[in-house]
Amino acid sequence: MDPRSIFIELSYVVASVLFILGLRGLTHPETARRGMHLAEFGMLLAIVGTLVSREIVSYEWIIAGLLLGSLIGVPMGFWVPMTAMPQRTALSHAFGAFAAALVGISEYYLHGAALGVIKIPALSFEVLLGALTTTGSLVAFSKLQGFLPGAPVIYKGQNIFNLSLLAITVLCCVLLQFFPGIAALFYLMLLLAFVFGVLLVLPIGAADMPVVIALLNSYAGLASAATGIVIGNNVLIIAGMLDGGSGFILSIVMCRAMNRSITNVLFGAFGSVGETTTAATGQMHATNIEEVAVQLAYARQAVFVPGYGMATAQAQHVLRQLGDELEERGVAVKYAIHPVAGRMPGHMNVLLAEANVPYSQLNELEIINPEFPSTDVAVVIGANDVVNPDARDNPKSIIAGMPILEVDKAKTVVVLKRGQGKGFSGLVNPLFFKTNCGMLYGDAKETLTNLVQAVHNA
Amino acid sequence: MAPETLLAKFYVLILAAFLGYQIISRIPSLLHTPLMSATNAISGISLVGSLITAGAHLSMVSAILGFCAVTCSTINVVSGFILTDRMLKMFKRRVEPPSKKEK
Fold first, then answer.
1. Fewest beta carbons less than 10 Å away: which of A36, A126, A166, A223?
2. Which residues from chain B sit within 8 angstroms of residue A340, using beta carbons?
3. Are A250 and B46 a contacting pair at CB < 8 A?
4. How far is CA A455 from CA A301, A302, A310, A376, in A?
5. Are strands A301-306 and A437-441 parallel, antiparallel or unpaired?
6. What is the pLDDT of residues B30-80, one digit of tens each?
7. In sequence order, what are the beta bridge partners of A362?
8. Is the CATH code 3.30.1490.100 the one for domain A289-457?
9. What number is the average pLDDT over the span A25-32?
10. How far apart are alpha carbons A116 and A103 in whole angstroms?
11. CA-CA distances (angstroms) from residue A138 to A40, A90, A133, B8?
């Protein structure tokens, strides 16, 4: 081994260690930033290591790519608003997976059957996953950004059609193992994988996006790891597996938080069925700002439950103001975060952190649920299914068994809602008919702004 | 590639998966969004593969494919790390008692 390749390999080893330490830092908010700086340094090291590689003979395309990528990446990093994190994450999965697919295509284009029986399987896997993740993520992005309707796109025989398409794609992939020289098979597989990615995500509704994003994250990581096998690069394998593993764990966490299986999310077309399952009807009680302000101002403990509606109304900052106002009056203020509230894992936490809510006030479901019976006022801001008591009480409900935030156990519940309509899932929420529940209709931001004033004057 | 090399790579793959599982399952849900953008940035390490594809100059087609791959990976690395840091900066411990806040 000449000194140059030793340097390259060493840079990769150090980079891998730094990546692992970086992720380890994320186990606590206090150490997280330092950890990420280590990972950044690792990345730099690995890039420099690669650039001195003997395989690289010309730099013009590299420099052009690095420049263009930075030109797009830097503004994206600095200016993407926190509310747009789900879209941006979906988009970055598309980029990552596309890069993996491109490297795979190039490898096949250059070497074809000469890759040999060992690399071909890894390469097919890489290109297959890379391609379907690219288009799948782009569809997820379009749904989250509002380019496509958030509701599931469904038609008759969809699952059968999708599954047959997948079967043909996989068949191409299998055949390719036996006839690696037939380029048509490879390109057909590529094309079908691109198409399948679109069809896979189209039927999935916006409320299920946390699972889909996590799953696509996992696929993008696995595609990178497979690239590592194809080009024989350990740091790629390690980073790809860390990414893939993280996405996988997050999808499991998300599914558990909805009491559904991954298959059910992918092929269940949630929100299109079961309008008839709940029988609960009744009168919703509208309440008003003054009444709620008094309830809040003289409460001992108030718990805020944010949902996607808070994100769309951009109400996190004014919510924090309300929290501050209450704390000044001696009210204990807490925030209850459901794992699938919002459109991606951890969405609500980031928004509230952006609004300067200290993280010690953000409580997970298991921590906060026992506290609801001793809570005077629970305020639900643009959340619906995650506080639907049917999930707990009605075994026939399609969300039966989903862990919920038990706001109905609080002495008073106030629900901030745009209108009287149903939530995304189309489910009736019996919480709204309970006698201890009052509805405050209107834009969440406006309502909260008025509440801050009213509490101040109370 | 010799079968032994593949086996060695497989070794790395399995160990990395195991290690990843151990570390990531300990990350609190509080930080799941930064985690996602962090792993995204880290997996932008596929840049390493893209760089070689773009720079090896074996054919025009692969150079262009490589160029696109370098661009995509760079976007992920750069924006991923910047965004992660922006987010992590926001997670603060309670610094002052709220009664001392302005207003």
1. A166
2. none
3. no
4. 15, 13, 20, 15
5. unpaired
6. 999 999 999 999 999 989 999 999 998 888 999 999 999 999 999 999 999
7. A335
8. no
9. 94
10. 17
11. 26, 7, 8, 35
- ∠ CA B22-B23-B25, nearest 5°, is 70
Residue A153's SS3 state is: coil
Answer for the pair A215, A245: CB distance below 8 angstroms, yes or no: no
* Active-site annotation of A, residues: 385
ipTM score of the complex?
0.91
How many whole angstroms separate alpha carbon B31 and alpha carbon A26? 7
**Closest to A89 (Cα-Cα) out of B92, B25, B22, B75:** B75
Dist CA A258 CA B54 (whole Å): 44
Chain A 370-429, residues with CB within 8 Å of chain B CB atoms: none
A15: amino acid identity, one letter: A
Q: Which amino acid is at A84?
A: A
Around Cβ A298, how many Cβ atoms within 10 Å? 13
pLDDT at A54: 85
- Whether residue A21 lies within 8 A of chain B, CB to CB, comes out as no
The answer to whether the CB of B56 falls within 8 A of the CB of B62 is yes
Which residue shows structure tokens 């503004």?
A75
- The per-residue pLDDT for range A300-348, each reduced to its tens digit, is 999 999 999 999 899 999 999 999 999 999 999 999 999 999 889 999 9
Looking up tokens 């997050």, which residue turns up? A250
- Secondary structure string (H, E, C) spanning chain B: CCHHHHHHHHHHHHHHHHHHHHHHCCCCHHHHHHHHHHHHHHHHHHHHHHHHHHHCCCCHHHHHHHHHHHHHHHHHHHHHHHHHHHHHHHCCCCCCCHHHCCC
